[in-house]
Amino acid sequence: MQKAIENLKEEYIKNISLRSSTGALEELKVRVDGKDHKLQELGQIIRKNPQVIVINLSGFPQTIPAVLATLQKSGMNLNPQQDGTTLFVSVPPVTKEHRENLAKGAKALFIKCRDSIRTAQNDTVKKIKKSGSVSEDVSFSIQHQVVAIGDKFVAEAEKIHEIKHKELLGEKK
């Protein structure tokens, strides 16, 4: 259950931010020669300034067309410019529509986290019920504790989601 919370935080940091971060680009999957590679495996990604991210593909220049296509299709509203083996990616200004799309993505990640917590909780409860080595009273007590722990983790995930949602939509805290 804690792992689900950590995954949620990690996904929010990498993929759900107002500014396109180098972390979001690093994790993009680029298809080269029938295999998927993370962009960070193919080139060096550097934030030159707040508006420009530079991707140096001198190590694998043959991947440039695939990287360009991946960046354009990424849904991050990116339009990379090529100069030799270097790509310059302008970070677009943040629009209301972009904020709303990020908020939808954040909600989807929260729901995925909540569902994985509930699945772990239900699996544990089923194992306790099947286990005949403890009395019914003890089993019932353990089940309630597992449910309470699961509810606590869901509440924590919900709190993280609410903070991120407010941040994305520019609402006051």
Characterise this structure.
By secondary structure, this protein is an alpha+beta fold. The protein has 2 domains: 1-13 and 95-169, Topoisomerase I, Chain A, domain 4 (Orthogonal Bundle); 20-90, 2-Layer Sandwich (Gyrase A, domain 2), CATH 3.30.1360.40. The protein has helices spanning 2-15, 22-26, 39-42, 64-72, 96-130, 136-169, and strands at residues 29-32, 35-38, 44-49, 52-56, 80-83, 86-90. A 4-stranded antiparallel β-sheet has the order 3-4-6-5. It has a two-stranded antiparallel ribbon with strand order 1-2. A hairpin with a 2-residue loop joins strand 5 and strand 6. Helix 5 (96-130) runs antiparallel to helix 6. The longest helix is centred in the middle third of the chain and has 35 residues, at 96-130. The radius of gyration is 21 Å and the shape is elongated. It starts with a helix and ends with a helix. The relative contact order is 0.14.
